[in-house]
Design goal:
Helix content: over 70%
Largest sheet: 3 strands, mixed
Structural class: mainly alpha
Shape: globular
Number of domains: 1
Number of strands: 3
Distance between the termini: 59 Å
């Protein structure tokens, strides 16, 4: 029996709420060795949940075959971009000197706000394309440029001192450079101070907005169905806190992932630019994306093995 899209929205909302409660409020992710296995298990649980939702789409949503392929392809793009974003989070925490015990709290609020930002960006992006179809070429150009930057830059750097938001906060607020447990604001001598924890959250949010500028056009290149875009995006974001603590101990195993993601952005950018001439089937897009992701991970593993032997 096929279900209407409204029913799917209710199902998706319920699943999202359950995942948020469990992952952000009922599990205690840390970076010690004993929790690495637990973080990997929880990451596997949330990825499996997304795949099961994809199967549910296949069987119970109208035109389920096409929609499920769109969902899976969009999910792969968004998940790979999210993983790359997590490496930026690791650098931000390092630059800001955030203690390990404070990182889960920042990630919790970062993920919750990322969900809100992504929904806003998606609605704006789809709305723009519906009103001005030729904006698709602008999105394609943005993706090509993002790909160029990702493939050209040998090493990401966090420019903390020149970040506009950080400069604004320093100019207009009292700054407390220490970490006071999980507090974003503290009071001293009758004055309110912004803590380093809040400044870190600002950097996390600004990086996520930058990634959203790349990821939303990328997923729109796969489908313009708002339901598929939002659900694939949110499923890719949910569970990132567990995935962060899993990846933080396995960074060296994903050395070439950045280049794989860069090539994916280039591919989907070209797809958008030639969409008026030739529409690349979603199944082919999914195959290309899977190949690039798999190849980047395999190359990373080979590189890690060679370095280990040399040592």
């Amino acid at each position: 029996m096929l279900l209407n899209e409204t029913t799917f929205w209710f199902i998706f909302s319920a699943i999202t709420l359950i995942i948020i409660i469990i992952d952000l409020y009922m599990t205690d992710h840390t970076q010690d060795k004993s929790s690495l296995k637990k973080s990997l298990i929880w990451s596997g649980v949330w990825i499996t949940t997304a795949l099961l939702f994809c199967v549910f789409i296949y069987f119970y949503l109208e035109d389920g075959h096409t929609k499920s392929i769109e969902f899976l392809t969009a999910y792969l793009i968004e998940k790979s971009l999210s993983v790359d974003n997590l490496f930026v989070f690791i650098m931000i925490f390092t630059v800001m000197g955030v203690p390990k015990e404070n990182q889960p709290h920042i990630l919790k609020w970062g993920i919750l706000s990322a969900i809100v930002f992504r929904i806003i960006f998606i609605l704006l992006g789809v709305g723009l394309i519906n009103l001005f179809h030729h904006v698709i070429y602008l999105f394609g150009a943005i993706l090509i440029y993002a790909s160029y930057k990702m493939l050209k830059d040998k090493e990401d750097k966090i420019d903390y001192e020149n970040n506009f938001l950080i400069k604004y906060m320093r100019k207009h607020f009292n700054i407390h450079t220490g970490f006071e447990r999980n507090k974003f604001f503290i009071k001293k001598n009758g004055k309110t101070y912004v803590t380093s924890l809040f400044l870190t959250l600002i950097l996390i949010e600004s990086s996520d907005i930058i990634f959203a500028v790349d990821s939303i056009p990328a997923v729109i290149s796969i489908t313009k169905d708002t339901f598929i875009i939002i659900t694939s995006n949110i499923f890719a974001i949910l569970g990132l806190r567990a995935l962060y603590f899993a990846l933080s101990g396995l960074v060296d195993l994903f050395h070439y992932l950045k280049y794989g993601v860069g090539l994916i952005l280039f591919f989907v950018g070209i797809k958008m630019l030639i969409s008026e001439i030739y529409i690349i089937p979603t199944s082919i897009s999914m195959g290309v994306i899977l190949f690039l992701l798999t190849a980047s991970v395999i190359l990373s593993l080979i590189s890690k093995k060679r370095k280990t032997k040399e040592i």
